[in-house]
Fold:
Amino acid sequence: MKMSKKLMSLALICLVLVAGLAFANRTETINIVYDNIQLMIKGKSVVPKDANGNIVQPFIYNGTTYLPVRAVGEALNLDVSWDSETKTVSLAEPKPATAQYLIDLMMPDDYRYFEVPANSYTVNGNTYDEGFRLGYGYDSGNATFKLNNQYSNFSGAFCHDYNDDREIKITVKGDGKLLYTTTLAQEQQITFDIDITGVKELKLESTDQIFVANPRVK
Structure:
């Protein structure tokens, strides 16, 4: 299995951290030097802190610079854990976040012709347990959700939900900027997967009635 560059670089740091210490199972008094060492990771200044938020200063011992592994790991967006029984520090890539149904998290802050069906909903021969309608007949619809920069992905499917041969235009905006646009023909369904990293306010707009199936964020 290939090691990512991020983990590889951190592994080298960990070697520095534990070099000369792995053999020891005893208490020893040593002389260390604090020299106002500054930590830069990927060009950004990092103030090392422990799990309780207290500042931890890097130090020099016998010509080697030692850094707090938790601060370095978290600065590289890695999960850091400590097993007190085996005295093992573990660093790993974060587990992918589980996608959550948008309407379970929040209702729209503002909307026009927005409706969540009370039961499962059938559109174009497909039945969905999760979703919502935008628009009503020939009337346009929209819904705005306050995401507050908590999510990075928005996925689901847009379904043409009206017995009409007119094309329906759909747009998705993040903080007023266009993130995605598409058109739906009669009885058409289009899956979507949209990057919403950094988005505080997500707005969906449709020119006619559509059904947004399985809308999830993570």
About this structure: The two ends are 27 Å apart (CA to CA). The CA atoms of residues 105 and 157 lie 18 Å apart.
